[in-house]
Amino acid sequence: MSSLELPVTHKGNVPVSATGPCRPLATRWISVLTLATLLLAWWLVTAAGWIEPLFLPSPGDILAKGWTLLTQGYMDASLWQHLGASLGRIGLALGAAILTAIPVGIAIGYNRVARGILDPLIEFYRPIPPLAYLPLIVIWCGIGELSKVLLIYLAIFAPIAIATATGVRTVDSAKLRAAQSLGASRAQLIRHVILPSALPDILTGVRIGLGVGWSTLVAAELIAATSGLGFMVQSAAQFLVTDVVVLGILLIALIAFALEMGLRALQRKLVPWHGQNH
Amino acid sequence: MALLELERISAQYPGVATPVLADINLSLGPRQLVVALGPSGSGKTSLLNLIAGFVAPSTGRITLDGQPVTGPGADRGVVFQDDALLPWQDVLGNVAFGLELAGMPRAQRERTAREMLALVDLSGFADRRIWQLSGGQRQRVGLARALAADPRVLLMDEPFGALDAFTREQMQELLLKVWQRTAKPIFLITHDIEEAVFLASELVLLAPNPGRIVERLQLDFGQRYAAGESARAIKSDPGFIETREHVLARVFSQRNAARRQESA
After folding, report:
1. ipTM for the complex?
2. Which residues of B touch A182 (CB under 8 A)?
């Protein structure tokens, strides 16, 4: 719950109908109304011809264009292929980042020497915008898939490693001692106590990392790519195909939103104890 | 023959002049329930941490069955004040945790865990999540978890300190029942005088600065409860009241002595 408003409880025998005049609008419906209003305004200004389609095509045109892109494609590739290229890159980078950043984060949080070695390295490269070191990666690795995946991987790696290290360092020492007094070895401590304790932080790190990674991916595709959503938007812009540009931007936003919502659902499922009074 | 033996134990935090504990001699034999009672700062928790192996003494020797204690281990079960249960496991998983660490197959460890839950009157709670339990229930799960690993001795760090008065009395009676049935030697620390007098077969009174033992009492109220006498009858027994007042007087005289020392 992001809202601080408490649900009103009615006591006594006064019947209160669900559609009573004082009942406040649910937060979700306020959001839905806002979006609907925006959409309506968009439709209105385009349908009335107040804005040239070159600058802002109508919602109907965008939908029609979407259908065309799905069936015929754009720039030698269908919309699915562009989507698949982008999602494949981020999926690959995310998988690699999760596999490497979590062990690194555990090492930083658990071991003094590992912290001394790795912490400054991560803190040094983390604040650099990925696009600033993209040229260097291109010089080293060329303009192929490797450069793009590597760039996204680096963008995702730092948030996950840092969040994992924080989670490991804030493990309740009583739980560690409890496991030790039950005979847990070092490896068992990590597997049964430290990793589950840090899981909420790790998932938050993945959420942040995925957000950063997605923006980096699109930016990288704007610069050097022959497929992907970023490339589609970029090349459409060069030919002033505004409806494809708008469609691409909307798709990029929608996917980011879906990723975030999916991860939140995953977090609720994997760590139901998080936020419980324990 | 004592199981657990502490010989001339001292403990000191780095950079602090006064030791936390000085020259502690203590033994815990079979069927004993030793209670360490003392005000805060008397080193009660440090003493328990030393026995559990979480910290090492600066001088002295701790042995269990003749073997020196070098670190934490499954031979000394610990029940914590803050239950320290694992919220990602259900109640049964928590109780079976020690056996899981020891590599026992699932069916076998869950059978043992269910027996332990029955012992602490939580039979119907095996599938509950930890956050669905009350404070008293959590402490019972903590007790069952420590017992399931079948330790040689049981160490309890102010286990009922955070509970309300009513639940605390229930838990004391449950502990005596469990102590009677399992015959485990127990070392318990508390700052509650009535709890100490009621539970202890040997009561060790600690004084602060530095933490040291100032009195040892052999008591039998816990055994009388375990033998079937009612808790109310014992607690209103003149002998019980007299002992409680005696211990109270000792604690207060300690405090006054400490004040005089400070003002001098």
Report:
1. 0.89
2. 74, 77, 97-98, 101, 145-146, 149
Average pLDDT over chain A, rounded to whole?
Answer: 87
Q: Cβ contacts (< 8 Å) between B82 and chain A: which residues?
A: 174
Minimum-distance CB partner of B76 among A179, A181, A185: A181
Residue of B nearest to A179 (CA): B98
Decide if B160 touches A, using CB distance below 8 A. Answer: no
Distance of CA B114 to the CA centre of its chain: 23
Q: What is the pLDDT of residues A187-235, one digit of tens each?
A: 999 999 999 999 999 999 999 999 999 989 888 887 778 888 888 988 8
Residue A232 to chain B, least CA–CA distance (Å): 44
Confidence of residue B13 (pLDDT cuts 50, 70, 90): confident
B80 contacts in chain A (CB < 8 Å): 174, 177-178
Question: How distant is the Cα of A89 from the closest Cα of chain B, in angstroms?
Answer: 33
- The two tokens of residue B24 are 């502690």
DSSP A122-166: HHHHTTS-HHHHHHHHHHHHTTSHHHHHHHHHHHHHHHHHHHHHH
